[in-house]
Design a protein that fits this description.
- By secondary structure, this protein is an alpha+beta fold.
- The protein has a single domain (2-134), classed as Alpha-D-Glucose-1,6-Bisphosphate, Chain A, domain 4, CATH 3.30.530.
- It has helices at 13-20, 26-29, 113-134; strands spanning 2-9, 33-39, 46-53, 56-68, 73-80, 89-96, 101-108.
- It has a seven-stranded antiparallel β-sheet with strand order 1-7-6-5-4-3-2.
């Protein structure tokens, strides 16, 4: 099943992409991320995020497993995280022009109804956060 969220951003596709593809600064656009650390650049880049969701505190490790600068698309794999998130692959794509862009964040996976709602919430938070960050 494909779960997808999207947002229209009042910023150029190049601006949105230039920040997104580095994996840097997740805490700047995701309120649940309190700290992130990126190692490397390009394909194979890893990111560790400290996350606080209410009473829950945990860490996830991600790897950039697909990167296409020409198409402005990438895929990250969550290599380590809580149940329901571990082994997820999240696809990002940015389309648009110099005036505005659209970001699409998606995941294709077999989900339980509970994890489907959680993943939809996470994808929506990513889109909303990237929109707010890039429109500053």
């Amino acid at each position: 099943m494909l779960i997808s969220e999207k947002a229209t951003i009042n910023a150029s596709a190049d601006k949105v992409w230039s920040h997104l593809q580095t994996l840097q600064g997740a805490e700047q656009y995701l309120p649940v991320v309190t700290k992130s650390e990126v190692k490397g650049s390009g394909l194979g880049t890893t990111r560790t995020c400290d996350i606080e969701m209410g009473e829950q505190k945990f860490q996830i490790q991600e790897t950039l497993v697909k990167l296409d600068d020409a198409q402005k698309s990438l895929t990250i794999s969550i290599d380590n995280g809580p149940p329901g998130m571990k082994d997820l692959k999240i696809d990002f794509s940015v389309n648009g022009n110099e005036e505005s862009s659209e970001i699409v964040v998606s995941n294709e996976f077999e989900h339980s109804p509970e994890s489907e709602q959680m993943i939809k919430g996470v994808l929506n938070m990513i889109c909303t956060g990237l929109k707010e960050y890039n429109e500053q």
